[in-house]
Design goal:
Layout (H helix, E strand, L loop, with lengths): L1 H13 L6 H18 L20 H5 L6 H9 L12 H13 L4
Helix pairs in contact: 1-5, 2-5, 4-5
Length: 107
């Protein structure tokens, strides 16, 4: 139930009907997760021009993809893509990472 509530809180905040504090909290939690679990492969803001192996996109590049949405990022993370390590993310962690990634989208 809590997972569904967090998901809807994010959607409502995007629509401007709920304070953005909840979204900011999720994005902050997502940033901490990204720095701990993802920074080795995905360049994050503040890492400089660190070179990555292969064609691994930065999270800013992921956020800037045409048609990118919170839902598509969550689905991607929960699909456990074979090219990524399985970090056994909970739904809340997937939501937090999606909120963080979208916070990097160009405005």
């Amino acid at each position: 139930m809590m997972v569904a509530v967090k998901h809807w809180m994010f959607a409502l905040a995007v629509l401007g009907t709920v304070t953005t504090d909840a979204v900011a909290r999720d994005a902050k939690e997502g940033e901490a997760l990204a720095r701990r679990l993802c920074a080795h492969c995905h360049m994050l803001p503040g890492q400089g021009e660190k070179q990555k192996a292969g064609d691994v996109p930065s999270f800013a590049a992921v956020a800037a993809r045409p048609g990118q949405s919170y839902e598509t990022i969550v689905r991607w993370l929960q699909s456990r893509p074979t090219m990524m390590p399985d970090h056994h993310l909970s739904q809340d962690e997937s939501y937090a990472l999606a909120a963080y990634i979208l916070s990097l989208a160009p405005r």
